[in-house]
Design goal:
β1 and β2 form a beta hairpin. This protein is of the alpha+beta class and 163 residues long. Helix content is 54%, strand content 23%. The longest helix is centred in the first third of the chain and has 47 residues. α3 runs antiparallel to α5. The chain has five helices and three strands. It has two domains: 54 residues; 101 residues, Tetrahydropterin Synthase, Chain A.
């Protein structure tokens, strides 16, 4: 008789553990459901009160066009070489554009000095153009008046001929 009682006790313990597991899963599901319901009600309340989460408005890019110019490059095995280049600068604001336009003689001077020291073979390759654009960006970002540096987002070549 003792064996029958022991055999019946084991399934009751397994059933009890299974019921506890099911109970905990149900409690967790109800909790998650309640949280999500409460969260959506808060969003509906904010929406009804006219509170809107505004996304930042996209800012149109501001460009500064630098008229094309011709520069003598360093001589190589082919003799003296010329670079004809036109640039456009992408800047973050109209204020920066106004600063660059106001200081255009300095901008062009810095460009001429920088470009005249370039090697024709190097700047005709894609990597050379990228390095040149980075050098231009750094050179033109230096302060013009006072200690305030100018922010330039990108340098775009609109014309680029090496002869």
């Amino acid at each position: 008789m003792a064996r029958k009682k022991d055999a019946q006790a084991v399934p009751v313990a397994k059933t009890s553990a299974t019921l506890n597991l099911i109970l905990w899963v149900l409690i967790i599901l109800v909790s998650v459901n309640t949280y999500l319901l409460w969260d959506t009600r808060n969003m509906a309340t904010l929406s009804a009160n006219g509170v809107q989460v505004k996304e930042p408005e996209p800012v149109d890019p501001v460009f500064v066009t630098i008229s094309p110019f011709t520069v003598n490059l360093q001589s190589d095995q082919f003799g003296p070489r010329l670079l004809y280049a036109g640039l456009t600068l992408e800047v973050p604001s109209e204020k920066v554009k106004a600063t660059l336009v106001k200081n255009m003689p300095q901008v062009r001077n810095r460009l001429l000095v920088l470009l005249s020291g370039q090697n024709a073979e190097r700047i005709t390759q894609s990597e050379g153009k990228r390095m040149l654009a980075q050098s231009i960006l750094e050179t033109l970002s230096e302060p013009y008046t006072g200690n305030e540096a100018v922010t330039i987002n990108d340098v775009l070549f609109t014309e680029f001929i090496v002869q």
